[in-house]
Amino acid sequence: MAERNLRRHSSIVTDGVEQAPGRAMLRATGFTDADFARPQIGIASTWSMITPCNMHIDELARVANRAADEAGGKGVIYSVITVSDGISMGTEGMKYSLVSREVIADSLETVSGCMGHDGIIGIGGCDKNMPGLVMGMARLDRPSIFVYGGTIQPGPDRTDIVSVFEAVGKRAAGTISELELKRIEDTAIPGPGSCGGMYTANTMASAIEALGMSLPDSSAQDAVSPSKLRDCERAAAALMQLIERDIKPSDIMTRPAFENAIKVVIALGGSTNAVLHLLAMAHSVGVELGLDDFSDIGADSPVLADLRPSGEYLMSELIAIGGIRPLMKRMLDANMLDGSCLTVTGRTLAENLAETPDYPEGQRIVRALDRPIKADSHLVILRGNLAPDGAVAKLTGKEGDRFSGRARVYDSEEAALAGILAGEIIAGDVVVIRYEGPRGAPGMREMLSPTSAIMGKGLGADVALITDGRFSGGSHGFVVGHITPEAVAGGALAIVRDGDPITIDAQARTVNLDLDAAEIEARLERWQPPPPRYVRGVLAKYAAAVASASQGAVTDLPATAD
Predict the structure, then answer these.
(1) Is 120 among the domain residues?
(2) pLDDT score of 559
(3) How many angstroms separate the Cα of 317 from the Cα of each of 126, 151, 396, 517?
(4) Which pLDDT score, from 0 to 100, does residue 8 have?
(5) CA-to-CA distance for 478 and 493, rounded, in angstroms?
């Protein structure tokens, strides 16, 4: 392939007499005459010191940059933002979390689109920057690879960030002392890396690898490890091959590849956020994917991994026995995955997995296919008069199949958390948290603080929670989120009152307000939408542009009326 074809994007901004000013500016950044003849590799780094998930990514970006130069390209590192869910959780700041996914996708598209990068390596460590990077890659549709920043090591006694959230509830319940809470706070996060269970970061890393957009094993490496450094080096070499062969995200992110990703997420017991993000990623590459596809695919997809938050083990312990590749090999051998899907190695999924050994004898983390933790998906799509456009629940079977109770209604996450910690919630209650959807919050906050407080107070088996917001991958219990239409759009969640009967039925896949249709209709006719919470700035722009959660809460298609 001719060199100019290898540089079909960067040549537009660097070749010819008229581009002398651009070359002059690039020379100031370190370009030489020889570099202008090389493919430019944009390395989108999410490094920052605001969160342990991303504090080490500057080193990973430098390794990838050096490897890109050694492979015959010219690496160019640039920054995209990240925010921390774990730090902002339960605060007004958390409203920016899902918004950041769109800003990140826009940022990657803007920088690499403007600068004419011929290929892209995106390095992400926290859950929103991962789908955000892939969405930006898909929009540009240039050869691209995602590199996961890697998982964190556990604290003493196998503690992690969710241990801290749940300790807050235990302190409120009086089951641990102030000193014990302080000890857990001080030691649960020992260093760099993403949250240590099968929470959203590890879920999305696994999904992206199963999708074919990461190299094998990228999702299952410790953040600080020689294997993660090698992952960055291998990514640069693989990207040069993708450029030479003109293999783009649209060649990899196909409908069968998304089905593979969904099945792997289910097998791992992954986060409900995977539904939101996979819908958005599919939209970015032009693949049709809807909520009902998760139900259809999930009907024959078992939960196999006993991982936190609903299970016992941490991601670092799964890494120690081989990561997700032996699981994918088992699924491939059972015809559960489409092995013909192309990946960023330039080979098919089946070719990548061909020599993968099985897990060691006696391991307890991943079950055999014939004795699953749950025979079908834990990601349950519910409908009913509270969610005619759909809702998402994470039900592993440990929570039970049905819950009927009395509504206890809160119009914000803060009010709900205060009520839970103050003892307002008792057994048999259905906690309703509304006006927390994509438009209503705006930003669709995660309800980790309320769900952790419920678990910490020992009410996990006796209380349900429903919301038009969403959940952290660390949330567990009888919880239903992503309710659409959301309350601010006039969904029935807006007219629920304290004491109203609500039934959640995982077998029938329904979530219903148990009132006469006439009463519901009368209340809706009297309901008035609240005024916008923000009238300027990024949250106001997001609220005006965002589509419903059932469409992935994307911002680059017209907002619907739910």
Answers:
(1) yes
(2) 46
(3) 19, 11, 20, 50
(4) 86
(5) 17
Which residue(s) pair with 239 in the sheet?
Answer: none
Q: By residue range, what is the domain housing residue 267?
A: 38-153+191-353
Structural element, H or E, at residue 229:
helix 226-245
The position carrying tokens 């605060």 is 91
515-530: string of b/e by CB count within 10 Å (b at 16+)? beeeebeebeeeeeee
C-alpha distances (whole Å) from 82 to each of 48, 75, 103, 137, 436 are: 7, 21, 9, 17, 21
**At how many degrees (to 10) do helices 255-267 and 291-298 cross?**
60
- Determine the residue type at 326: P
Task: Clarify whether residues 59 and 202 are in a common domain.
Answer: yes
Residue 545: predicted pLDDT: 96
In a domain, 536, yes or no: no
**206-234: b or e for each residue (b if 16 or more CB lie within 10 Å)?**
bbbbbbbbbbbbbbbbbbbeeebbebbbb
Answer whether residue 206 is part of any domain: yes
Residue with tokens 């859950």: 127
Catalytic residue among 218, 310, 472, 550: 472
Tokens 């309320």 belong to 450
Is 472 designated active site?
A: yes
Buried b (16+ CB within 10 A) or exposed e, 238-250: bbbebbbeebbbe
Tell me, yes or no, whether 115 and 181 share the same domain: no
- In DSSP notation, 196-224 reads SSSSHHHHHHHHHHHHTSS-TTTTSSBSS
Q: How many domains does the chain divide into?
A: 3
Contact 278, 261 (CB under 8 A): yes
Residue 433 to residue 420: CA distance in whole angstroms: 12
Same-domain status, 206 and 182: no
- What pLDDT is recorded for position 5? 55
End-to-end CA distance of the chain: 48
pLDDT in tens, 68-122: 999 999 999 999 999 999 999 989 999 999 999 999 999 999 999 999 999 999 9
Residue 503 forms beta bridges with which residues?
Answer: 404, 512
What's the pLDDT at 400?
83
Q: Which residues of the chain have pLDDT under 70?
A: 1-5, 558-562
